[in-house]
Description:
This protein has 302 residues and is mainly alpha-helical. Helices cover 70% and strands 3% of the residues. The strands form two sheets. Strands 1-2 form a two-stranded antiparallel ribbon.
Amino acid sequence: MRHGRYPFILGFLVAPVTLYAIFVLSPYVQTIRLSFTQWRGFVPPKWNGTENYSRMFQNHRFWQALEHHAIMLVFLPLITIAFALVFAFMLNVGGKGQGGQTRGVWGSKFYRVVFFLPQVLAIPVIAVLFQTVYRPNESGLINGVLLKAGLDKPIGFLIEKNLALPSIIAVLVWQAVGFYVVLFSAGMANIPGEIYEAAELDGASKVRLFFSVTLPLLWDTLQTAWVYLGIMAFDGFAIVQVLAQDNGGPDGATTVLGLEIYNNMQQSRLGDASTYGVALCLLTLTFAALTLRVTRREAYEF
C-alpha cells in the first residue's frame, strides 16, 4: 500500500491541478504577456516592451487610484474589524446565562441574522440601494431626515470630492461587517467558556476580558480577516462603478485600479488594461504576503 500511495494521490490530483492550470494560472500568464504588447483586440498583439508600464506610471489616474487604495487599506479593515469584534463579543460573551455562565446578549441569534443580511445582497444591489440613501436632495434617506431636522442644504455625499470616497468606504463597511461578525463568532465559540469564567472570578471586567482573553486567542482569525479586507480594499470596482459619479469622479476622487482596467478595456486598449491588471495582482499579493509575515506570532494553546 505504501508503494502505491503516491500514484494513488497523484491520480486524484491530476484533474484538479490541470483544471487550475488551464483556468487560473494560464489567464495570469497570458495577462502578463499581453501587458508587454499593444493590442486592440482586432489584430494580433504587437510587442512594445515596457511602454505600457511607462505610460501607466506617468498617468495621474494611476497614482490617484493607488492613493485611494492606500486610504481604503487603512480605514476599511480597521473600521470593519472594530465593529465586527465588538458585535461578535456582545453576541457571544456580552451577557449572562443561568448560573452565571458566560453567554451572548438577549436576542443574539436574531442579531446574527440581521448583521449577516447584507451578505445576501449582491454588490450592485447594495450600490443601487445606497444611491437612494445618498441622494443629494430631500428624496434621499439621509438628506431627507437631516433637512427635516433643520439642515440648511442637502449634503452631496457622492458629488463632493472630499466626501465621495469616505461615503463609498462606509458602504463597504456596512456590507462587510456581518460576515466578519459570523467569522469572529465562530472563532469565539472555540474559546472554552471556562477561561472567561475563571477570568471573571478573578474580577476581570468585560473590557478586560475583551483585550486580555478574546483578542489574543482570536489572533489567527483577525489575521485572516485583515488579509481578506485588504484584498477587498484592492477591489472595490463594482461599488465604485455603480455609485461613483462621472466614472470614478468627481474629478477622479473615487477611481480604483479595477475601474482603470475597465476604462482601458472600454477604449479597446487591452495591452494597457493588462498592465493595470498585473499591477493590481502584484500589489494584492505583496500586501497579503507582508501582512501574513508581519502579523505572524506564536499560536496560543488552550
